[in-house]
Amino acid sequence: MAASGFAIATALNQGIVLAGLGLLLSSHMDILIYLKWAGVAYMLVLAYKAWRAAPSSHQQAGSISRARIFFTAILVSLSNPKVILVNMMLLPVYISADKPLAAQAVTILCTGAAISFSVYASYAFFASKFITRLKSKAANNVVASIYASAAGALALVNR
């Protein structure tokens, strides 16, 4: 269900960019600076939480509703500003000025959703195979280190 939610969110994010939000953001670059520092702070909070977290107990498969998983995946993806930024950089490469935009948009949205579904379904499959190894204090510390490193790298970027 999460993979389906991420696929829907991918299409929504691409639709937002194709509808013109990319142009709006590009004319107000200072917004991106604030988003960058908000992202740094958010990743540091995630790193702290992961470092302090106790290993998770094994949760039964049916304990969380499918609808909640689906909508949480959509919300997580839609609240990630990196997705909009990546789409702002990539989508113009695939748009041809001499062809109808609607047909190109449908193709891009469907392709993006299919790729997103495939990637997140693969994540879910491999996570299910390694679930016992992923629920340890060492795994939490690795995740915390990745978040902290990403926050540091983002903070060092000039723009």
TrEMBL record:
The lineage of its organism: Bacteria, Pseudomonadati, Pseudomonadota, Gammaproteobacteria, Vibrionales. It comes from the Bacteria. One of its GO terms (molecular function) is amino acid transmembrane transporter activity. The chain crosses the membrane at residues 29-48, 69-95, 101-126, 138-157. GO terms for cellular component: plasma membrane. It is a multi-pass membrane protein. Signal peptide: none annotated. The keyword Disulfide bond does not apply. The keyword Protein transport does not apply. It is found in: Cell membrane. Keywords: Cell membrane, Membrane, Transmembrane, Transmembrane helix. Coiled coil: none annotated. It comes from Veronia pacifica. This is Lysine transporter LysE.
